[in-house]
Amino acid sequence: MTLQQQARQAQRAAYAPYSHFKVGCAVETADGEIYTGCNVENASYGATLCAERVAITKAVSDGHRKFRRIAVATDAPNPAPPCGQCRQVMAEFCDPDVEVILCGANEIESSHSFGELLPFPFNQSSLL
Ligand code: THU
Predict the structure, then answer these.
(1) pLDDT tier, 4 (very low <50, low <70, confident <90, very high otherwise)
(2) How far apart (Å, rounded) are the C-alpha atoms in residues 13 and 114?
(3) What is the C-alpha to C-alpha distance for residues 8 and 103, in angstroms, rounded to an integer?
(4) DSSP β-ladder status, 99-103 and 67-73
(5) 49: CA distance to ligand 1 center in Å?
């Protein structure tokens, strides 16, 4: 299965009773392992977790701290990019050359470098 297909499969588990916007994500670690995640909403809306942060957190909690590629699947006609909070979490673990593949409805896809999505990140090197 491609990384995009794994993101699409993860989307099926999305818990999105409030927005009805289901998101799936698959991340490939530096050593080639795949972790997936979906959005998990909450009646207290601010407690909602995005699919990307679920997938990244699962991988990091298993000891992976570097990623090669990230795929995000939604049913939006224009493939939806990661939100700002997810980009900030990606900035912790992704170099600018990490590929971010966005998958929308009708097999529409686009590919971007992480550096393109977040060109001037606040990260570890920004701290004293
Ligand atoms: N969502 C994600 O899972 N990833 C993003 O990058 C953007 C937003 C989710 C959060 C919420 O459950 C729904 O999409 C609508 O915002």
Answers:
(1) very high
(2) 25
(3) 8
(4) parallel
(5) 7
Place of tokens 């977790």: 49
Q: Rounded to whole angstroms, how far apart are CA atoms 120 and 19?
A: 30
Q: Is the CB of 52 under 6 A from ligand 1?
A: yes
Q: Which atom of ligand 1 is nearest to the CA of 54?
A: 3
> Does the model's pTM come out above 0.90?
yes
The reply to whether 116 belongs to the active site is: no
| Distance in Å, CA 80 to ligand 1 centroid | 9
Q: Do 18 and 49 form a contact (C-beta atoms < 8 A)?
A: no
pLDDT-derived band at 36, boundaries 50, 70, 90: very high
Edge-to-edge strand list for the sheet holding 34-38: 34-38, 24-29, 67-73, 99-103, 109-113
Which of 48, 56, 89, 102 has most ligand 1 atoms within 8 Å of its beta carbon, as the pocket-test mutant?
48
Percentage of residues of the chain with pLDDT beyond 90: 100
